[in-house]
Design goal:
Chain A: This is Ras-related protein Rab. Chain A: Keywords: GTP-binding, Lipoprotein, Membrane, Nucleotide-binding, Prenylation. The complex is a heterodimer. Chain A is an alpha/beta fold. Helix content of chain A is 28%, strand content 21%. Chain A has a single domain, classed as Rossmann fold. Chain A contains six helices and six strands. In chain A, a hairpin with a 2-residue loop joins strand 2 and strand 3. The longest helix of chain A is centred in the last third of the chain and has 18 residues. Chain B is α+β, with helices and mostly antiparallel strands. Chain B is 29% helix and 17% strand. The chains are: A alpha/beta, B alpha+beta.
């Protein structure tokens, strides 16, 4: 809570999905963003659930960003609802060196929009990441095409990123969080109807112990 | 250069050795799969359905309509294909027909026409919205959608058409259709109510009603807000499922609500059961003497083992007989038997006492009733375990099944399976749900069934200060010989139904079809809109009986009592049973643990998964490998065998075996390492 007084500080927890074809660098982007690490040694994601990034957004706002990686089931496109539920933003990633991963972007976007929505029924904000731009062949600059594509497919925008060279990863995240915060301000939080329970946090209710006696 | 994306085939999996294959995604199978994956076993989990959780699934409203459609269609016929079986092997076919769901019946009572919305609002009548679109000679309002698929299609079309017409108080603020342009009175006059409407066309705005009328159109439109479970259970806050969720850290994937009330149906009324101490003292329906009696009895039950003299004479008698000898009023006996112990009168005394004790011990852990309900429905729970399994490398494949097992004649073991595409996948163990086992492999056939009803209603069974109540309602036999019915009423904050509606699940052990078993209870506790001419409930102004908007009945087979010994199967084929009728999930969890012990006797069952929340890097903090990182992030900690460094910490040393396994799995099961040269960070 840098600077601002604690009482004024608002804390947010945002669940953000990172999706896209196999090997486009989803895990690399998460690791770069959250841990400032990059490894070229590629491996499919095992044991990684989500990573948490804490952002001191401004003097009054603390954002805890949960970045959810897709696990082994991705290859068959069969994500559990557990993965999608209550997400408020998404990155769809493709690999600029492989056209087929870009072709799959629409499929992922469609899947995303069909499986998760904001409380008001609109799609969750999503940003397209053209990853591995450090390997991009020169001359393949088609900014206006990409802008159009984003408009048609419903992305807020797109970024050329490189998890390897740390290009635009922070910028893309900042852009997405800005948009999530905009939504959040516009929408009242639907949970005024009593507490939700996390199992690992036992409530010490007035009725402590075993209830009677 | 890169491996092709696999759509729906298991090509790459076929090369894997020693995989554990799981067929069907029910709770037990999902728990075992997660447990195996967690300790480094290779897991392939398939289901012929397109959704997770098998018969434990929950569906959006529209998803449920598709599910109903699916069960109307006959299953795929058994092609007696020549299987790829080699010498010394034989094929054992699995059942390709899912016969676990029967007697599916659907009734829609919510209106579809906007003018009926107006009418209902005007009259404020609970029962005023079910009108056949075309005058029906019998005055039959109920329409069984199953009898004609065209009805549903028609409705789907209507759903689209009517949205534009929806108007008045029914039009939610968030709707995008231009309702504002349609004056509330601009309904098409049609049907029997035409005259009445024209006689008194009072616009809705002049008499605002607090209750919104829910039309079928609205339900379809808001269908995604529903999560309708096929199985209705609650979680005992100190039951084996809750314990396992906490122990394994799978609980991180779900949130819960406390059940807020225990209700019971008695003498034609729904009453709240006082179960916690605060309830007992605050109860208005109990006398002071009764309060004292009840407290005394419950206090005894809490540690009844300490007082054997109190009950040992009744060890051969029923719990009911025991209750009769205690100084309890009829009121209290009803509460204790039906709502606290939740047993039948004939169970033995000790069993009744134990059930009461379990109930009492679960009180107060998370709230003032012993029960929890997962947000988004019970169907979340198997998916939570599937997510855990996938995070540790388990592969999931829906719309895929196993056609037959390949048995080694010599050892009698299952060495491979052949999937629905005819491809052979070798396996070390095969875990399958009972429904896939053909008749030939069964020594006897147990035909127990569960009767289920799902209702969407317009108000709570017992209105209170809060609209957001989650209630368990115990309904003793409404007539001699009829079943004990358990009812769970869910409010919209459980994320299982749209605001303004309640989702009601009824469950009992079947004696007949679901409708035969449960319709008598439904008709006593709810208002089933009758044809408009009758309007039986119309006069009861302020009637608090909820109206049924939509109802589904079905039977589900219950194989939970089938013993392992009644299957004639290879020793490395393990059968999981379907959901049982009990309130808790203990059976499924105990079964999962037992099967896991057979599969991997040496391994720990569901050790805690590392918590990703432990990896917190402050945005401005120091970068790089902070202490605890390798430990907390398994992907980083378990890169490949070569990279497994000598354990620096005690915990790592303990995990070393597992580390190697996971790493192996990674290369074998996944087999898509980027062929770029590795230059480590």
């Amino acid at each position: 809570m840098a600077g601002g007084s604690v009482s004024e500080c608002k804390e947010y927890l945002f669940k953000v999905l990172v999706i896209g074809e196999l090997g486009v660098g989803k895990t690399s982007i998460i690791k770069r963003y959250v841990h400032q690490l990059f490894s070229q040694h590629y491996r499919a994601t095992i044991g990684v659930d989500f990573a948490l990034k804490v952002i001191n957004w401004d003097s009054k706002t603390l954002v805890r960003l949960q970045l959810w990686d897709i696990a082994g089931q991705e290859r068959f496109g069969n994500m559990t609802r557990v993965y999608y539920k209550e997400a408020v933003g998404a990155f769809v990633v493709f690999d600029v060196t492989r056209g087929s991963t870009f072709e799959a972007v629409s499929k992922w976007k469609h899947d995303l929009d069909s499986k998760v929505k904001l409380a008001n029924g609109s799609p969750i904000p999503s940003v397209l990441l053209a990853n591995k731009c450090d390997q991009k062949r020169e001359g393949s600059n088609n900014t206006s095409l990409m802008d159009n594509f984003c408009k048609e497919t419903g992305f807020l925008g797109w970024f050329e990123t490189s998890a390897k060279d740390n290009i635009n990863v922070d910028e893309a995240a900042r852009f997405l969080v800005e948009n999530i915060l905009l939504n959040d301000k516009g929408l009242p939080y639907e949970e005024s109807n009593g507490e939700r329970i996390k199992l690992d946090q036992e409530t010490v209710a007035a009725e402590s112990k075993s209830g009677c006696c | 250069m890169y491996p092709k994306q696999i759509a729906t085939s298991l090509d790459n999996v076929i090369t894997i050795r020693n995989v554990n294959i799981f067929l069907k995604l029910g709770l037990s199978e999902s728990v075992i799969a997660a447990a195996c994956s967690r300790v480094g076993q290779r897991v392939l989990h398939v289901d012929r359905r397109s959704y997770y959780a098998g018969n434990w699934a929950s569906f959006t409203f529209n998803g449920l309509l598709s599910w109903i459609e699916e069960y109307k269609q006959a299953g795929p016929s058994d092609e007696a294909a020549q299987e790829k079986v080699e010498e010394g092997e034989e094929a054992l076919a699995l059942s390709s027909l899912d016969t676990s769901i029967t007697n599916v019946e659907v009734f829609c009572y919510a209106s579809e026409e906007p003018e009926e919305v107006e009418e209902g609002v005007k009259d404020g009548a609970a029962a005023a919205w079910s009108v056949p679109q075309t005058p029906d000679s019998e005055g039959e309002v109920e329409r069984c959608l199953l009898e004609s698929s065209s009805v549903e299609e028609e409705e789907a079309v209507l759903a689209g058409d009517e949205v534009a017409q929806a108007s008045g108080p029914d039009a939610g603020a968030e709707e995008t259709q231009p309702e504002g342009e349609v004056p509330p009175q601009a309904y098409e006059t049609q049907g029997e109510w035409q005259d009445e409407q024209q006689a008194s066309p009072s616009p809705a705005e002049s008499q605002p009603e607090p209750k919104k009328q829910i039309t079928y159109t609205k339900i379809v439109k808001e269908g995604r807000r529903f999560n309708i479970d096929l199985v209705s259970k609650l979680m005992y806050s100190r039951g084996s499922l809750v314990d396992l969720l906490i122990k394994s850290n799978v609980s991180r994937y779900a949130e819960f609500k406390n059940v807020t009330r225990i209700l019971t149906y008695r003498n034609g009324k729904v009453e709240q059961v006082p179960c916690s101490r605060a309830d007992v003292f605050g109860s208005k329906q109990l006398t002071v003497v009764e309060k004292r009696m009840l407290m005394k009895f419950l206090t005894f039950c809490l540690d009844f083992e300490q007082h054997p003299e109190e009950y040992q004479d009744f060890s051969v008698h029923s719990f009911w007989d025991f209750l009769l000898t205690k100084k309890l009023t009829e009121n209290l006996r009803h509460f204790i038997l039906h709502s606290i112990a939740m047993v039948t009168p004939d169970v033995c005394t000790v069993e009744g006492l134990r059930a009461t004790q379990h109930f009492l011990r679960c009180l107060g852990r998370y709230g003032n009733t012993p029960f929890l309900f997962p947000l988004y429905g019970l169907g979340e729970i198997p998916q939570c375990f599937c997510r855990m399994c996938a995070v540790f490398g388990g592969i999931y494949c829906l719309r895929q099944s196993v056609r037959c097992l390949v048995l080694d004649k010599e050892s009698g073991k299952c060495k491979a399976v052949i999937d629905s595409n005819g491809q052979r996948i070798s396996c070390s163990h095969f875990v399958v749900e009972d429904g896939y086992i053909g008749l030939d492999q069964r020594k006897n056939v147990d035909s127990r069934q569960i009767s289920r009803a799902v209702l969407i209603t317009d108000r709570s069974i017992l209105p209170s200060d809060s609209e957001q109540q989650i209630s368990l309602v115990t309904v003793p036999p409404v007539e001699p010989g009829s079943p004990v019915v358990r009812m769970v009423e869910l409010c919209s904050s459980t994320m299982t139904c749209m605001p303004g509606t309640y989702l009601v699940h009824l469950t009992c052990s079947s004696s007949g079809s679901a409708r035969e078993d449960l319709a008598p209870v439904v008709s006593r506790l709810f208002c089933i809109p009758v044809s408009p001419g009758e309007e039986s409930k119309e006069g009861e102004e302020g009637s608090e009986v909820p109206s049924v908007l939509w109802a589904l009945y079905f039977n589900m087979r219950d194989t939970s009592a089938v013993d392992r010994s009644s299957y004639d199967l290879p020793s490395n084929v393990h059968v999981c049973t379907s959901p049982d009728a009990a309130l808790g999930s203990d059976h499924a969890i105990k079964l999962a643990e037992a099967v896991f012990r057979q599969l991997l006797p040496e391994e720990e069952f569901c050790p805690p998964a590392p918590n990703p929340e432990d990896i917190i890097y402050d945005g401005e903090g120091p970068q790089g490998e902070g202490p605890g990182f390798e430990e907390a992030d398994p992907a980083e900690a378990l890169p490949s065998q070569g990279e497994v460094e000598s354990a620096e910490r005690q915990e790592e040393a303990e995990d070393a075996g597992e580390t190697g396994d996971v790493a192996k799995q990674e290369t074998v099961a996944v087999a898509e390492n980027e062929p770029r040269p590795a230059s480590e960070e």
